[in-house]
Design a protein that fits this description.
Elements lengths: L1 E4 L5 E5 L7 H12 L2 E8 L3 E8 L2 E8 L3 E6 L5 H15 L1
Antiparallel strand pairs: 1-2, 2-6, 3-4, 4-5, 5-6
Length: about 100
């Protein structure tokens, strides 16, 4: 697990060792556990998958790409605590 702020200062937590074939499974667990609602459609490419979700006014991104692995991104400042909780759940089950 690696935490950092991206160029837009959004909290991002990466899991390098999670492969693409686990994206849907992990995302579904996170969505169910935290009662998230999708914002937009799932984008799927050869080397990336991503979709935004929200809970109340908190918006997060659940993403996977070839370089970073599975990522949880706080799209709003208010979502940072939620991102940390999601990352803790993923770390418990996939580290």
């Amino acid at each position: 697990m690696h935490k950092y702020r991206d160029a837009s200062q959004r909290l991002t937590i990466e899991f390098f060792d999670i492969e693409a074939d686990l994206y849907q499974q992990i995302t579904q667990i996170v969505v169910n556990q935290f009662q998230l609602q999708p914002v937009g459609e799932l984008v799927t490419g050869e080397e990336e998958r991503f979709q935004d979700f929200q809970h109340l006014r908190k918006v997060i991104g659940l993403e996977w790409d070839f370089w970073s692995g599975y990522c949880v991104v706080a799209k709003t400042k208010s979502a940072e605590k939620l991102v940390r909780k999601i990352a803790a759940l993923i770390e418990r089950h996939h580290s």
